Write a sequence for this structure.
C-alpha cells in the first residue's frame, strides 16, 4: 500500500499542499521496496530460506490480505471499536495509538483548513481528486468496495484520509515492526517453519519432540539476521514531527507544526513515565522512537 500511495503522491505537482504535507512520510519508500524485492522476495532469498510459506506462498498471502484490507482497519478509532478492545485493561498499543492518532489528526486538520477555504475547495480540487482516484482504483484495486474513499467532498474527509496515511507510514509501522526482534529473537515464540506436523489437541508433546519441530539452525539464523536488521532504524533518525524534507514554509504552517511537536513531546513523556512502572515496557509508540516514514 505504501508504494501505491508514494507513487500517486509523487505525481502531484510539487507545489500542491498534499504533496508538501506527505512527502517526508514517503522517505525511502521506493528504496526499501526495491531492497525487499532483491533480498527478501527474490527466488532463493531470505523468505524462501526462513519461512514455511516461502516466496510464492508469501506473495499469495500478501495479495489476499490486500484484497481484504478495509479503510476502517487503518483508522485507529474505528479499528479499536470493530475489534471490541476499547475496555481491555493494560492494552498499551490502543492507548498510545489513539493519542498519536488524535495528535496527527489535529495537526492535519489545521493544515487542511489553512490550505482549503471550505468544503467546496476540496471537492473542486481536480488534482486532489485524481490523486485519490488513482490510489483507490489502481493502488488499492477497487478500494471503494472496502470503504476507501474514491472521492473527497469536504475538509473533514480529507483530514481523516491524510491522518490515516501519516499514521500508517509512521506509528502503525513502528507498532508492527519495531518489536519484532525483541519478541522473535527467542525462536520458539515465532518459528518461521516447523519440521514436524503440529500435534493434535489430544496428543502430549515431550520436550524432545518440541525441539525436533523447531526450525533448523540454518533457517533460524537466516530469520534472525533479517529481524536484527529490519527491527531497528539505521542511519540518521527522523522521528515523527521532524519533517526531514519539509517543503512547508511560512508562519502559519510553522505554528501548527510547533503545536504538533508539543503534543508529541507530551505523549512521549506520558509513555516514558508509564514504562518506568512496567515490568515489560511498551516503548514502540513513543513519538521519540517513531520514525516519520517507513525507512526500514
Amino acid at each position: 500500500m505504501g508504494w501505491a500511495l508514494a507513487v500517486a503522491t509523487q505525481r502531484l505537482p510539487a507545489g500542491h499542499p498534499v504533496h508538501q504535507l506527505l512527502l517526508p512520510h514517503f522517505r525511502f519508500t521506493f528504496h526499501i521496496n526495491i531492497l525487499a524485492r532483491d533480498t527478501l522476495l527474490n527466488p532463493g532469498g531470505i523468505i524462501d530460506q526462513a519461512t514455511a510459506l516461502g516466496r510464492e506462498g508469501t506473495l499469495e498471502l500478501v495479495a489476499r490480505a490486500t484484497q481484504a484490507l478495509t479503510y476502517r482497519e487503518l483508522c485507529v478509532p474505528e479499528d479499536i471499536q470493530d475489534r471490541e478492545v476499547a475496555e481491555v485493561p493494560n492494552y498499551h498499543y490502543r492507548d498510545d495509538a489513539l493519542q498519536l492518532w488524535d495528535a496527527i489528526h489535529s495537526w492535519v486538520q489545521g493544515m487542511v483548513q489553512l490550505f482549503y477555504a471550505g468544503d467546496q475547495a476540496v471537492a473542486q480540487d481536480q488534482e486532489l481528486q485524481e490523486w485519490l482516484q488513482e490510489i483507490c482504483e489502481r493502488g488499492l484495486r477497487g478500494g471503494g468496495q472496502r470503504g476507501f474513499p474514491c472521492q473527497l467532498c469536504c475538509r473533514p474527509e480529507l483530514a481523516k484520509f491524510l491522518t490515516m496515511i501519516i499514521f500508517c507510514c509512521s506509528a502503525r509501522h513502528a507498532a508492527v515492526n519495531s518489536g519484532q526482534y525483541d519478541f522473535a529473537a527467542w525462536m520458539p515464540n515465532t518459528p518461521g517453519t516447523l519440521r514436524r506436523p503440529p500435534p493434535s489437541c489430544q496428543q502430549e508433546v515431550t520436550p524432545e519432540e518440541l525441539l525436533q519441530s523447531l526450525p533448523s539452525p540454518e533457517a533460524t539464523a537466516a530469520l534472525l539476521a533479517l529481524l536484527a536488521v529490519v527491527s531497528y532504524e539505521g542511519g540518521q533518525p527522523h522521528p515523527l514531527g521532524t519533517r526531514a524534507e519539509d517543503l512547508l514554509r511560512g508562519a502559519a504552517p510553522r505554528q501548527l507544526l510547533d503545536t504538533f511537536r508539543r503534543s508529541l513531546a507530551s505523549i512521549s513523556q506520558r509513555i516514558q513515565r508509564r514504562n518506568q512502572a512496567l515490568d515489560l515496557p511498551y516503548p514502540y509508540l513513543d513519538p521519540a522512537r517513531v520514525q516519520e516514514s517507513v525507512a526500514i
